[in-house]
């Protein structure tokens, strides 16, 4: 009877790829076989004792185009949906870091670069639903549309609510007080 070798799995808190240090918790861009860009959060790094290759366990972000047949007007170009989908990948697939913020953090920024994204929902891939449901997403304006931080809004000077310029028929650049605040 022959002995079988015990495979030892070694875990790491960080790896260096192309002179860039990646750590557990980092959000990253991943190369996909079809040259598409996908995004994930690093959960851990590990190496099988029998092989020289290193791997990362990641939790995927879904892009709006992965979820919607037609992307709704309220979805931002910088929007990602967190998910419950995990997978192990080769660390060689990781090629850049990104920053993923909350909607509130993202909306407060005056300028953002291509490596700054935000997430306001979790996509349950098994149930094929977004959480929270779209009915619970932040609404703005008198038209009650869902907030898209890519659009320009006028803010009421008193209540700080946001409005579309075309909905409130504001034609000049001036301070604005909404009808609700004017009547109270």
- The number of helical runs is 4
Query: Count the strands?
Result: 16
Helix content bin: under 10%
The fourth-level CATH homologous superfamily of the domain at 9-125 is Bromo adjacent homology (BAH) domain
Which CATH class of the domain at 9-125? Answer: Mainly Beta
Largest sheet: 7 strands, mixed
Question: What is the beta-strand fraction?
Answer: 35-45%
The helix/strand series, from N terminus to C terminus, equals: EEEEEEHEEEHEEEEEEEHH
- The third-level CATH topology of the domain at 9-125 is SH3 type barrels
Structural Rg: 22 Å
Give the distance, in angstroms, between the N- and C-terminal Cα atoms.
88 Å
- SS class: mainly beta
Overall pLDDT score: 91
What's the shape?
Answer: elongated
What is the correct CATH architecture of the domain at 9-125? Roll
Task: Pick out the low-confidence regions.
Answer: none
InterPro entries: BAH_dom, BAH_sf, Zinc_finger_PHD-type_CS, Znf_FYVE_PHD, Znf_RING/FYVE/PHD
GO molecular function, one term: zinc ion binding
Pfam families: BAH
Organism: Stentor coeruleus
How is this structure best described in words?
With 184 residues, this protein is mostly beta strands. It has a domain at 9-125: SH3 type barrels. Helices cover 10% and strands 38% of the residues. The chain contains four helices and 16 strands. The protein has helices at 64-67, 103-108, 165-168, 179-182; strands at 9-12, 14-17, 20-23, 27-31, 37-48, 54-61, 82-83, 86-90, 94-101, 116-118, 122-124, 129-131, 139-140, 145-146, 154-155, 162-163. The strands form five sheets. Strands 1, 4, 5, 6, 8, 9 and 10 form a seven-stranded mixed sheet that branches. The longest helix has 6 residues, at 103-108.
């Amino acid at each position: 009877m022959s002995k079988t070798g015990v495979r030892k799995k070694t875990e790491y808190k960080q790896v260096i790829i192309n002179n860039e240090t990646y750590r557990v918790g980092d959000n990253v861009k991943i190369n996909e076989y079809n040259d598409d860009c996908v995004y994930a959060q690093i959960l851990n790094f590990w190496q099988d004792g029998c092989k020289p290759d290193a791997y990362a366990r990641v939790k995927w972000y879904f892009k709006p185009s992965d979820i919607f047949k037609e992307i709704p007007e309220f979805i931002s170009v910088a929007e990602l949906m967190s998910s419950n989908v995990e997978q192990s990948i080769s660390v060689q697939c990781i090629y850049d870091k990104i920053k993923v913020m909350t909607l509130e953090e993202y909306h407060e920024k005056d300028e953002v670069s291509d490596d700054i994204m935000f997430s306001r929902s979790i996509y349950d891939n098994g149930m094929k639903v977004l959480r929270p449901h779209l009915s619970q997403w932040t609404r703005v304006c008198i038209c009650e549309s869902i907030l898209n931080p890519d659009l320009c809004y006028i803010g009421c000077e008193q209540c700080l609510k946001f409005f579309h310029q075309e909905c409130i028929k504001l034609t000049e650049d001036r301070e604005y007080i909404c009808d609700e605040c004017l009547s109270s």
